[in-house]
């Protein structure tokens, strides 16, 4: 082999290795979403209701990410721990395309608590919270901190007694969140 051939092989290996490293970086790029889920009991006094919410273990919280055409491209979920904390890790790249955290929503899915299982919108957990600004950006770490989200008891849930509007009846006009 000549020096020219060895040079071409070395250059090819260098380009190939840089592509593999870049692909590995993209594959490892993630952002994290964390928060807390609590139970508010309206039967307590005002101070207890505001300050005495208890964590719920085993609540399911989801992250749903949409593309520019409002199609779901990523879904992830996590269960809360003993302290009511959740942490969902999402890849920044799905099928070779970059996820935009600004197009992601976090919402409550379910509560295993037989008493405290009515999702509230106090904190935005029922309708979904859009990721806006990360709370932590440090080196390779991007983390969004949300919540707390709240569940309540059926006794505290206010029923919707309003008459349905015509807009509520059409599927095309309803929002997913």
From TrEMBL:
Q: Which Pfam families match?
A: Pollen_Ole_e_1 (PF01190)
Tell me which positions the record assigns to the signal sequence. 1-22
- What is the species listed in this Swiss-Prot or TrEMBL entry? Sesamum angolense
Does this UniProt record's set of keywords contain Manganese?
A: no
Q: Which GO terms describe its cellular component?
A: cell periphery
What name does UniProt use for this protein?
Answer: Pistil-specific extensin-like protein
**UniProt keyword terms in alphabetical order:** Signal
């Amino acid at each position: 082999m000549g020096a020219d051939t060895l040079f071409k092989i070395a250059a090819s290996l260098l380009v190939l290795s840089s592509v593999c490293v870049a692909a590995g970086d993209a594959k490892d790029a993630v952002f994290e979403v964390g928060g807390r889920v609590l139970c508010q009991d309206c039967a307590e006094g005002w101070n207890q209701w505001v300050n005495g919410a208890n964590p719920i273990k085993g609540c399911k919280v989801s992250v749903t990410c949409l593309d520019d055409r409002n199609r779901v491209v990523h879904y992830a979920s996590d269960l809360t721990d003993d302290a009511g904390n959740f942490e969902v890790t999402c890849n920044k790249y799905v099928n070779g395309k970059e996820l935009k955290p600004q197009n992601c929503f976090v919402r409550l899915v379910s509560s295993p608590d037989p008493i405290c299982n009515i999702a509230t919108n106090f904190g935005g957990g029922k309708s979904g919270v859009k990721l806006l600004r990360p709370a932590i950006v440090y080196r390779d770490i991007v983390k969004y901190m949300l919540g707390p989200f709240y569940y309540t008891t059926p006794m505290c849930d206010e029923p919707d007694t309003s008459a349905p509007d015509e807009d509520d009846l059409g599927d095309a006009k309803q929002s997913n969140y």
